[in-house]
Every structure is written in structure tokens, then in C-alpha cells.
Specification:
Layout (H helix, E strand, L loop, with lengths): L1 H10 L10 H12 L1 H6 L5 E5 L3 E6 L2 H10 L1 H11 L5 E6 L4 H5 L5 H15 L18 H12 L7 E4 L6 H12 L5 E5 H13 L3 H9 L3 E5 L8 H16 L3 E6 L11 H8 L2 E4 L5 H19 L7 H10 L4 H18 L5 H12 L7 H11 L4 H4 L6 H17 L4 H7 L5 H17 L1 H16 L1
Parallel strand pairs: 2-3, 4-7, 4-8, 5-6, 6-7
Antiparallel strand pairs: 1-2
Helix pairs in contact: 2-5, 8-9, 14-15, 14-16, 16-17, 18-20, 20-22, 21-22, 22-23
């Protein structure tokens, strides 16, 4: 009777008067998300304050907050609304983790450090073949090679050394060569930014950030590849920033590679870009014809030595391959391998016409088009300054080229709408959607617009 009476009383309680039983909410999380997600992420959420229309929830770190907001927030809100309909938003507060848990040394601490070390060694071993002797020098990379060698002679003279350039131009080769040269007399750490993030997330989930920090900050030479990977990952950037400062303070040498200069890194904190730009920034350019010919000849020598076979390619064929491969060294080697395989199977010396037939699908494909390239080509085509095209001004002479550039960025690159918007002076993705719809409609109705679009596309493909 008493129980039934209580239920009847509860039926008359208004939405405003209801309070959440957080234990029941957590049980519902476990049922909805499953044990793995609940144990890794949601179990550590605590209820700090409950208001009529929103909740303040506590999470242990900024990384936890970012991860939960980006992946689970909608479902979490849906779950809590089932307990209290008036709730329409959730705020998160970072609760400083118990210092005692952070600072005391666990009994198996040494084993955990060893685990990190073994994992890094398994994935990031220095390749003995990628040394300075095997790096082929040319005009496009001689400055990068020179300073890479100087870093090995005078640690911390250029700090950080920042190598930037497109895909497949030799950045990783140089980083590897530096590591090989310095590893005998220094504690060298060589890791990709992606792998750095993997260990960062793993350490957070295991509540083992102390060992993570200690391990990465004890190196005397810290080499990290493809730093652009930290783009948009706020918590990872925070940890990298402090790791960077700690290493600089103790006099460690830092060498970094990326696909673009520091100040062009998207969604990376300004303070990180400033520190990266404060060292020595060296650009590796696309190889010229002379260097590509040298690379082809060197590769042929290596294949002949390794497989004990004679490869006969004329100077004309080598020059043709080098002149037609216009992107990077990896593509060049891939093209060469294709030609050698055809020559081996058919047991014949190839002519330029043979190569044209073998490689027609490779050399006729669309060249790599980037948002930067589109912006530059469009601004030049309409004879306006790039800064003006990216400005907030909405006059027709600037707005239309801007919309065309956005349209082409959507059609010719793999960038998402939000990414494209950010590249156009941090505009919203809805602006990009409007631009794409507008230019699509105009190109169907206006012959002049269609002609402009086709001409710009041709310029982008040819360059």
C-alpha cells in the first residue's frame, strides 16, 4: 500500500521538481552504449549540478570532454531526457584528477614504461636503408639535406628543425637518416604524430599519463613525423605543446616534418605554430628533371645489385619517365617499377612509344589539386589579390570568384565542407554549401560561367 501511494504521489510531481538518480542514469548508459564504451569513457562522468533545463557533468580531463562531446553527446542527452524531459543541454566541467592518483608510483611502473617503449620500437624502428648515403641530392632538397647533416654535428643549434614539403619528397628519409646518425651517442625518439596520439589515448584510458610524460620527455633527440596529424585535436596539441617546451628547456634537439609550413597548419594552436616557426623551417620542393633522372638511375642500380639481373633502359626512356612524372618521388619509383616489370615479362628493350602505352593511364590522370592551389589559380584567373578574395567583403567582383573557388574545392578535393570553410577565412560550412549550389546553378544556365569553370579546371590539372 505504501509503495503504491508513493507511486501515485510521484505521478503528480512536475518536471521542474524531478531530480535525477545518477546511478540509474549510469545503468542506462551501460545498456545503451555497451560495456566497452561505458567502462572506457562514460563510467568516469559524474553529476556536479542539476538545473531545471540543463546538467553540469564532471569529466577527468579535457581530452575526455572532447572525445565524449564529439562522439556520444547526442545519445547521452537523449538518455538523460528519458529521465527528465525538461533537460535540453549538457555542460562539462574538468575536474582536476586526484593528485595522489597521478603522483604516486605504481609497483609495476617499470613494466608500463617498458610496454610503451616496446610498442614504439615495434612500430617506429629506424630503417637502416634510409641513411644519408642513400639520399639522392638535388636542387630541390640540397638545403634540407645540408641542415639535416648540420643538426647531427651541432645538437640544438637549429631547434626545432622543421622540414616541410609534399607527399613523397624525402622528409621521412631525412628524419630517419638523422636518427641513425645520432642514435649511438644520444637517446633518440623517432615517432609519427599518429603513433604519438595512439600512446596518448592509451595512457589516458589506463590512467597512466605520468609514465607517458616521463617516457617522451626524457629523449635527447625527439623526431616526430607528419605533425599536421595533430590538426583539430585540442587535447593532443596541449600535451605536445608541453612536451615540446620540456624538451627545449632541457636542451634536447627536436626535428619535425609536415606537409606544409608551420603557419599554414590548419586548426593548430597559434602558440604551437609560433614555436614551430621559431626554429629553422626548410622547404623540400618538387624534384627537377636532373634529380629525377639521378633517382631513376640509382634505383636501377639497386635493383640490378639486389636481383642480379640486367636492366636495359635507354637514356631517352629514362628522360621520358622523369619528365612525365610530375608529382613526387614515390610516383616516379612506381612508374619505373611498372616499366621494368613490362620489360622483364616481354624480354625486350622499350621505346618511348612502348612507355607511352604502358603509362597512359598514369600520366593522363588528374594531378593532385589542393585548396591552396585552387585559391591561387582562381585569384590569378580573375586578377584579384588572394587576400581580397578571402576577405569578408561581399561585393560581386570578389564574392563570385570566392564562390567558384569553394565550388571547385568541393568538387576537386577530398576536403569536407567544414574544412573548406576554415580554409576560406574560417567561414561556416553552410556558406560553402550555398556557394556550391549557386555555382552549380549558374554553370548550368550561363555559358560564360561554364566556360570559366572549365578553363580554371584545365589550369588546375595542367599545373
Amino acid at each position: 500500500m505504501e509503495n503504491n501511494f508513493t507511486k501515485k504521489q510521484n505521478a503528480f510531481i512536475s518536471e521542474e521538481e524531478k531530480t535525477l538518480n545518477w546511478e540509474e542514469v549510469q545503468i542506462s548508459f551501460k545498456k545503451t552504449f555497451g560495456n566497452e564504451i561505458f567502462n572506457s569513457w562514460l563510467q568516469k562522468i559524474s553529476l556536479i549540478k542539476e538545473y531545471n533545463d540543463y546538467l553540469v557533468l564532471g569529466v577527468p580531463t579535457r581530452f575526455f570532454r572532447d572525445w565524449i562531446v564529439s562522439r556520444y553527446l547526442d545519445k547521452i542527452l537523449e538518455q538523460v531526457k528519458s529521465f527528465k524531459l525538461s533537460l535540453n543541454r549538457i555542460e562539462f566541467k574538468i575536474i582536476e584528477e586526484n593528485k595522489q592518483n597521478q603522483e604516486f608510483i605504481k609497483i609495476d611502473e617499470l613494466n608500463k614504461v617498458t610496454e610503451i617503449k616496446d610498442s614504439i620500437l615495434n612500430y617506429n624502428r629506424l630503417n637502416p636503408n634510409l641513411n644519408f648515403d642513400s639520399f639522392i641530392q638535388g636542387k630541390s632538397n640540397d638545403i634540407a639535406l645540408s641542415y639535416s647533416k648540420k643538426v647531427c654535428e651541432h645538437i640544438s643549434r637549429y631547434n626545432p628543425l622543421y622540414l616541410c614539403g609534399g607527399v613523397g619528397l624525402g622528409k621521412t628519409h631525412l628524419l630517419n637518416a638523422i636518427g641513425l646518425k645520432l642514435q649511438n651517442n644520444n637517446n633518440v625518439m623517432f615517432i609519427s604524430a599518429e603513433r604519438f596520439m595512439y600512446h596518448f589515448i592509451k595512457s589516458i584510458k589506463k590512467n597512466d599519463m605520468v609514465n607517458f610524460k616521463d617516457f617522451f620527455r626524457k629523449s635527447s633527440v625527439f623526431i616526430i613525423d607528419d605533425i599536421q596529424f595533430i590538426s583539430g585535436k585540442e587535447s593532443l596539441q596541449e600535451e605536445f605543446f608541453h612536451t615540446f617546451n620540456s624538451l627545449i628547456d632541457k636542451g634536447s634537439q627536436i626535428i619535425i616534418s609536415a606537409d606544409r609550413p608551420p603557419m599554414k597548419l590548419d586548426r593548430v594552436q597559434d602558440r604551437i605554430k609560433s614555436r614551430l616557426a621559431g626554429g629553422l623551417v626548410v622547404d623540400i620542393e618538387t624534384p627537377d628533371l636532373v634529380l629525377k633522372v639521378k633517382i631513376i638511375k640509382k634505383k636501377i642500380e639497386e635493383i640490378q645489385t639486389q636481383f642480379k639481373e640486367n636492366i636495359s633502359l635507354s637514356e631517352e626512356v629514362i628522360t621520358y619517365i622523369a619528365s612525365e612524372s610530375k608529382t613526387n618521388i614515390r610516383e616516379l619509383i612506381g612508374v619505373l617499377n611498372r616499366v621494368i616489370a613490362f620489360s622483364r615479362v616481354h624480354n625486350k628493350s622499350l621505346t618511348i612509344n612502348d612507355c607511352k602505352n604502358i603509362l597512359k593511364d598514369v600520366f593522363n590522370q588528374i594531378r593532385i589539386v589542393t585548396v591552396d592551389k585552387i585559391q591561387n589559380v582562381v585569384s590569378n584567373y580573375f586578377n584579384i589579390a588572394l587576400s581580397e578574395m578571402l576577405s569578408q567583403r561581399r561585393s560581386r567582383p570578389l564574392a563570385r570568384p570566392r564562390q567558384i573557388a569553394m565550388y571547385l574545392a568541393k568538387k576537386m578535393t577530398s576536403r569536407s565542407l567544414p574544412e573548406i570553410g576554415r580554409r576560406f577565412a574560417n567561414r561556416d560550412h553552410t556558406t560553402v554549401i550555398h556557394a556550391v549550389k549557386t555555382i552549380t546553378r549558374l554553370s548550368e544556365q550561363d555559358d560564360e560561367m561554364k566556360k570559366n569553370i572549365n578553363q580554371i579546371k584545365s589550369l588546375l590539372i595542367e599545373q
